[in-house]
Every structure is written in structure tokens, then in C-alpha cells.
TrEMBL record:
Keyword hit for Thylakoid: no
Official protein name in the record: CYP2K
Pfam families tied to this protein: p450
UniProt keyword list: Heme, Iron, Metal-binding, Monooxygenase, Oxidoreductase
Cofactor: heme
Taxonomic source organism: Mytilus coruscus (Sea mussel)
Domain of life: Eukaryota
Annotated family: Belongs to the cytochrome P450 family.
GO molecular function: heme binding; iron ion binding; monooxygenase activity; oxidoreductase activity, acting on paired donors, with incorporation or reduction of molecular oxygen
Chain residues that bind heme: 419
Gene3D superfamilies the UniProt entry points to: Cytochrome P450
Length: 473
């Protein structure tokens, strides 16, 4: 047995501050992947930085990411709720929900949200019907402007996704031109525009004066969303009928009743914060992935044509593509997989933390070390993928047109903290993508338009601004 190596490579640290400027740069740069690439060139694929007293270790490459998230996922299961960036955000919210909760609180609300997605969503026709309604609304809008330039396609996708989650949680949707829907989306934008969990100004508040870490905007966004959710919870309590469970809130009310005799982890603050998490984690991620999808399709029109040809053959004219068609639409499925591999809407997972003294790749990892597994590094790992930077849906297909290499694609992370919205997101991605391709031809506004396929990082990684047009087929 070899002794663990003690010092993980990393930049020189300063007393008290550690590497605060570098961590801030990581936190706020629109080119996060490039920042990590540069650090990797200097220090190797596993490197560390210090945010004040807190050590942050970046883990890269498929093998080590898999080890940390899945094989030994229990050793890195928690979130670093002790760091000020998270503490502050939780204080504004007034408690924790799912994404930044640990222990029994996390387990209780995560279980309930998974159950909600099972009961109201995945595999149930009601979810499919909800998504169809959203697709119809988007298609109507596209038809109205048939062939005209669209500069903010994501906005259309956000409305649709926001409604799907809204129906799941509150039991109803908005028309796409409804003023409340616009306000809700703006509120979520404000929440996303705030600093990430590794914010340095969370540790040294004086930095708020010089940094762009805008807690104020996030605070206002969270407080507006809280009021909105509270109003719905009150209305649900008043109209609750055990025989007619309408949505996630009703499901919580049932669980609350059943558990009230015992010590329960379910409480109104946990419900409120879990709804905030489902909303914020679920809307932007899926919409951004769809935004990426159509960008790839106008760049690779040959792939678009092949998907459309497959859909035409399997579905024919006159009906929508359904989830049950997925297994017959392998090329379309493989295309979506390749889009997710290259787009990396989430470049990294949320921060994890070592719950005990342990090791990664032979390096000593003391308890409470913050771990940032890189999903993008696993998707570009040359030991797994041939020509990883190339767009090639064929890498997910065998010669019989069957799906392969699924296990290496990890946009939703892996292990105990794997995204609980994965099935919902995959259903939405497939239905929206295939049905819109079935009805419209997407293309560059001008064939000479040069598209950037480099992402801009905020809390998610979005495409650089682009324009496209959609013509009825
Ligand atoms: C394409 C869409 C999506 C992508 C790429 C995505 C990706 C991720 C990733 C990478 C994580 C972090 C996992 C980790 O830290 O190891 C995560 C967590 C999470 N996601 Fe998603 N997600 C998507 C859609 C959704 C949807 C639709 C929902 C809910 C309706 C959702 C809810 C959550 C929640 C609540 C967490 C925190 C889980 C926990 O801490 O236990 N996500 N997601």
C-alpha cells in the first residue's frame, strides 16, 4: 500500500485570504471552462485553491469524477453548508430545501420530490399532455412569425419549461403572453444573476463594494418568489382534498399529515425552499439545453435533416412524437446525447464536501474539503471519447442503430446527489426537440452567419447570442 501524497498542487496561497482572487475569478468568469483549462495546464488535472480557510479541490477526468460521485459517492455526499456563500443564501431563503440541504432534511425533501415526479410526471400521460400543450404554444408562436429572425430562442424555451414545472408544483400553467409568467421568469433571472456558492464576498463582505457579486438582486428575487409560493401554499391548505391530489404541494400536505405523529423532517420552510430549488434548478437548465440543441442543428444542418428523416419515417405526418416513440428514434436520441455531451449546460456539479478524511487519486483529502467534480472534463476525456471536440451523434450508435456509450454521458451528475429532475428533463428535451424538428426547418438567418459554439458561464453555461429562423415544413 502506498502512503497518500499530502500536498495537492495549486497556486501559492496567502495568509487569511488563501487564493481569494483566483476563486472569485472562477466564480464570476464567463469562461469558466477556459479558466480551469489554464489552471490544469499549470497544476495538473487535480488541483486546489483556498477560499480563505476553505480548501477547494477540482477533480477532473472521467475516472476520478466517477470515483468521487458514484463509486465513493457516500464519502462526498454533503454540500459545504458551512461556507458563507451558501449560509447567506440559505439565510435569505429562511432554511434549506434540497440542493443545499444535508442529512435527514435533504433525504426527506428529495424523496418527496422524486415521488412527485413519478406520480405526476414520468411515464404518466398527464406530463406528456402538459408538455404537448407547451410545444403547441411554441409552435403557434413560430408559425406566426414563420421564417422571420429570432434572436432570443431561449426565452421561448424558458416559458415552456417554467410552465411544465409550474403545473407539477402548483397544478396549473400560464398562457405564454401572461404578465405573471413574464414576472416569474424575470424573478428567476434575478436569482440566477446573484453570486454562486463559492462567492468570496460571502467570506469578506467588504468585497461587495468592489465585486460584482450582487446579493441584493438575488435577495429581492428570492423574496418575491417566496411570497408567490407562500400564497399558493396557503391556498392549497384551504382547498386541500385528500381524495384529489393535484400536485407537489398537495403531496407534501399528505406526507405532512402522515408524519405529524412522528418526528418529521417535513416543515413549511423545507417545502417552500424545495419549491424554490425545483423551480430554479429545473427551468433554466432545461431551457438552456434546448437553446443549445437548436444552435447545433442550424450549424449541422445535415444532422438536422437526418433526424427529420428518421422522425418522418417513424411517425409520419399528422401526429405528435410521443415518449413511447423514443426507442424507435435512435438517431434523434443519439443527437440529443451528443448535444448534451458537447454543450455542458452544467460544466461542474454543485459543490460537494468530504464527510470524512479520505483520498482521491492518492492525494490526502481532509474532512470538510470542498470538492468540485468537472462534468465537462469527463465529456472531453480522450481516454473515453475519440476526437472529443467533434460533433458526431454516431458515437452513441452501434452498427444496428442501437444506443451505446450511455454510461459515459453524465450531464446530470451521478451517485446519491444525481439530479432528481433527470427523467423530467430528458422527457422535455426529447419531446420539444423532436416535435419542433418534425414541424419546422431551422436554419441560419443568413447562410454566411458565423456561429460561436463556445459557451458563456453563469450558474449554467449558455450559448453565445445567436439568431435563427424557423420555417414550416
Ligand atoms: C437539462 C436539464 C438539467 C441538467 C443538465 C441538470 C443538471 C444537474 C446537476 C449537474 C446537478 C448537480 C448534481 C451534483 O451536485 O452532483 C443537479 C442538481 C439538481 N437538479 Fe438538475 N439538471 C437539470 C434539470 C433539472 C430539473 C428539470 C429539475 C427539477 C424539476 C432539477 C432539479 C435539481 C435539484 C433539486 C438538484 C439538487 C439535487 C441534490 O442536491 O440532491 N434539475 N442538476
Amino acid at each position: 500500500m502506498t502512503c497518500p501524497k499530502s500536498d495537492i498542487p495549486g497556486p501559492r496561497t496567502w495568509p487569511i485570504f488563501g487564493n481569494i482572487l483566483l476563486v472569485s475569478q472562477f466564480n464570476s468568469t464567463p469562461k469558466r471552462a477556459k479558466f480551469v483549462e489554464d489552471m490544469t495546464r499549470q497544476y495538473g488535472p487535480m488541483f486546489r485553491m483556498f477560499l480563505g480557510p476553505y480548501q477547494i479541490v477540482f477533480v477532473q477526468g472521467h475516472k476520478h469524477v466517477l470515483d468521487v460521485l458514484q463509486k465513493r459517492g457516500r464519502e462526498f455526499i454533503d454540500r459545504p453548508t458551512f461556507i458563507p456563500g451558501i449560509k447567506l443564501a440559505e439565510k435569505v431563503k429562511g432554511g434549506s430545501g434540497i440542493a443545499f440541504a444535508n442529512g435527514d432534511d435533504w433525504k426527506g425533501m428529495r424523496r418527496l420530490s422524486l415521488q412527485a415526479m413519478r406520480d405526476f410526471g414520468i411515464g404518466k400521460s398527464s406530463l406528456e399532455e402538459n408538455i404537448f400543450e407547451e410545444i403547441q404554444n411554441v409552435a403557434d408562436d413560430l408559425e406566426k412569425i414563420n421564417g422571420a429572425q429570432i434572436t432570443n430562442f431561449k426565452k421561448m424555451m424558458i416559458k415552456a419549461n417554467c410552465n411544465v414545472i409550474h403545473s407539477l408544483i402548483f397544478g396549473y400553467r400560464y398562457k405564454h403572453d401572461n404578465e405573471f409568467l413574464q414576472k416569474l421568469i424575470k424573478t428567476m433571472d434575478n436569482i440566477f444573476s446573484g453570486p454562486g456558492p463559492l462567492s468570496a464576498s460571502g467570506i469578506f463582505p467588504v468585497l461587495n463594494l468592489v465585486m460584482k457579486d450582487n446579493f441584493k438582486v438575488r435577495k429581492e428575487g428570492l423574496s418575491t418568489l417566496k411570497k408567490y409560493i407562500e400564497k399558493h401554499i396557503t391556498e392549497h391548505r384551504e382547498s386541500f382534498d385528500q381524495e384529489n391530489i393535484r400536485d407537489f404541494i398537495d403531496m407534501y400536505l399528505v406526507a405532512e399529515k402522515e408524519e405529524s405523529e412522528r418526528t418529521s423532517v417535513l416543515n413549511p420552510a423545507a417545502l417552500l425552499n424545495s419549491i424554490i430549488d425545483l423551480f430554479t434548478a429545473g427551468t433554466d437548465t432545461t431551457a438552456t439545453t434546448l437553446d443549445w440543441s437548436f444552435l447545433w442543428m442550424i450549424q449541422y444542418s445535415d444532422v438536422q435533416k437526418r433526424c427529420q428523416e428518421e422522425i418522418r419515417k417513424v411517425i409520419g405526418p399528422g401526429r405528435m412524437v410521443r415518449l413511447s416513440d423514443r426507442r424507435h428514434l435512435s438517431y434523434t436520441e443519439a443527437t440529443l446525447m451528443e448535444i448534451q455531451r458537447l454543450s455542458n449546460t452544467a460544466n461542474f456539479t454543485l459543490p460537494h464536501v468530504a464527510v470524512c478524511d479520505t483520498t482521491i487519486n492518492g492525494f490526502k483529502i481532509p474532512k470538510n474539503t470542498i470538492i468540485i467534480p468537472s462534468l465537462i472534463s469527463a465529456h472531453f476525456d480522450e481516454t473515453i471519447w475519440r476526437d472529443p471536440k467533434e460533433f458526431n451523434p454516431g458515437r452513441f450508435l452501434n452498427k444496428n442503430n442501437g444506443i451505446i456509450n450511455k454510461e459515459y454521458l453524465i450531464p446530470f451528475s451521478l451517485g446519491p446527489r444525481i439530479c432528481p429532475g433527470e427523467s423530467l428533463a430528458r422527457s422535455e428535451l426529447f419531446l420539444v426537440f423532436s416535435n419542433l424538428l418534425h414541424r419546422f426547418e431551422f436554419s441560419k438567418v443568413n447562410p454566411d452567419d458565423i456561429l460561436s459554439l463556445e459557451g458563456i458561464t453563469g450558474l449554467t453555461t449558455t450559448p453565445s447570442p445567436y439568431r435563427l429562423k424557423a420555417d414550416l415544413r
